[in-house]
Amino acid sequence: MIKSKKILSLIIAGVLGVSMLTGCSQNDGSNASNENKETDSKKQKNIGITQLVEHPSLDKAKKGFIKALEDKGYKDGDNIKIDFQNAQNDMPTTQSIASKFVSDKKDLIYAISTPSAQAAYNATKDIPIIMTAVTDPVEAGLVKSLEKPGGNVSGTSDYLSIDKTLELVKTLTPKAKKIGVIYNTSEVNSKIQVDSLHDYAKKNNYEVVEKGISSSSEVNQAISSLVGKIDVLYVPTDNLIVSSMPIVSKVANENKIPIIASEEGSVSSGALACCGIDYEKLGYKAGELAIEVLEGKSVGDIPVTTLDETEIIINEDTLKALDMQKLSADNIKYIKSDENAKSTK
């Protein structure tokens, strides 16, 4: 009987021992799983930035994006790796950059400009894309709607009612009757703005004289052909034209043609004035949206954002060159021409 009790005690001890070992084994596995999840979340993220062309406004959009990431603890070379590529205004290169980002399996693509965003979207429907400096994402075929983008694209739009910009024509050149415009016929965003220009002109009794081009080599001839035919030149957020602004402003200012632009970069390059948005703030907001994606949110569920805040910017050097006087309004920012613009005068 005593022997039986000893055997029973040994059996119970053995069962308890096995249970304890099993429990420890399960706990170790759970801890390892949790550690793996933490490692995955902290894994370095690879971000590809594709920019169509070097230009002050687009450069600011890039700067703002990186600043937003840094402010939230995302440091290049640490927990993120940024691969920046500039297509230098060459469309095939833009497409090649997008394809390379896809083959490199980037975790996120930041596309600065409409053509850059379109190239990225055409290259992948899987990698999340945050766009910026895109005037009309719906018309460009990038999102279903601004409120519910769907798909793999969202970001920030630089859309601004053309009425705000063209009101400067009335204020600065009240005698003007003919508005000229040069634009790249291949850029969807430019066509949209030119259509809006025609609508505005019709309502306000202006005549529009337009000149469409397809390459930078045509810029000088295009602006020169408008001399004597227009009273003021309107420049949309056209990547080809704004990157050629020193040439455009040189011809226009020499012939006393005021340029009303759509963003500050063009004004610093010699245009007379603009009513525009802050592209660094636009890029910063895009960076905040990118962080949401990096932290797990579906990009298609993030509404496209625009900036409501605008400012009037006037180039003092151009104002003097056109023999015009400063306005007395308080809400105006006066700036000087940058060195590139000055060197062409």
TrEMBL record:
Gene3D superfamilies from the UniProt entry: 3.40.50.2300
Highest taxon of source: Bacteria
UniProt-listed InterPro entries: ABC_transpt-TYRBP-like, Peripla_BP_I
PROSITE patterns assigned: PROKAR_LIPOPROTEIN
Pfam families given in the database record: ABC_sub_bind
Name under which the protein is recorded: ABC transporter substrate-binding protein
Organism in which the protein naturally occurs: Clostridioides difficile
